[in-house]
Amino acid sequence: xxxxHQWPATLVQPVGSPLSLECTxxxxxxPNLYWYRQAxxxxxxxxxxxxxxxxxxxxxxQNLSASRPQDRQFILSSKKLLLSDSGFYLCAxxxxxxxxxxxxxxxxxxxxxx
Amino acid sequence: GNSVTQMEGPVTLSEEAFLTINCxxxxxxxxxxxxxxxxxxEGLQLLLKATKADDKGSxxxxxxxYRKETTSFHLEKGSVQVSxxxxxxxxxxxxxxxxxxxxxxxxLHILP
Lengths: 114, 112
Known about the structure:
The complex is a heterodimer.
Chain A: E1 3-7, E2 10-13, E3 19-26, E4 32-39, E5 43-52, E6 55-58, E7 65-70, E8 73-78, E9 87-94, E10 104-105, E11 109-113
Parallel strand pairs in A: 2-11
Antiparallel strand pairs in A: 1-3, 3-8, 4-5, 4-9, 5-6, 7-8, 9-10, 9-11
Chain B: E1 3-6, E2 11-14, E3 19-21, E4 23-26, E5 32-38, E6 44-50, E7 56-59, E8 62-65, E9 75-77, E10 86-93, E11 100-102, E12 106-111
Parallel strand pairs in B: 2-12
Antiparallel strand pairs in B: 1-4, 3-9, 5-6, 5-10, 7-8, 8-9, 10-11, 10-12
């Protein structure tokens, strides 16, 4: 069966510090990978998605970037965090275009920028 | 572009009450529709889905019917329990598009 791992679970970082959140998927190959951010009162916002190694689509221009160095690894980064980067970050995978394939989410990382 | 609109919460009901959470969508193609549930402190879990018009998704007593004529996918449950307290998200995935778009979520609180 497939599993998704996301870490760390919680993170407190000062403004201006770098960020690296990692997500890995096991038990499948060539999944679509996604990063979402959930901020209070704003629902779930799609940040980046990837359909293959090195292929990244950005949905919202901002202070963050994403990379996919391996088939089942997806990394969310920032060089300098802003207060507005605080939120709950969720990684997810899907089979892609296979007829209504749902997303499978990790447990999330709660990031607080101070 | 594609979008999902769902009723704003919070919704507060007594145990065993009937639940409806409204969801409407805008899509350029023929989307698949989903309901996800998020329990406190956790990630999202798929609750149910429907991939074509008139399909009914169901799970754990929840149901939703894909209504193309009204572009809706309302979530219903006949008798809610305290354990149903969570945030519910409606979402769509358009065919040929890798993006999955979510509504803003509806917080449901069930009183014992």
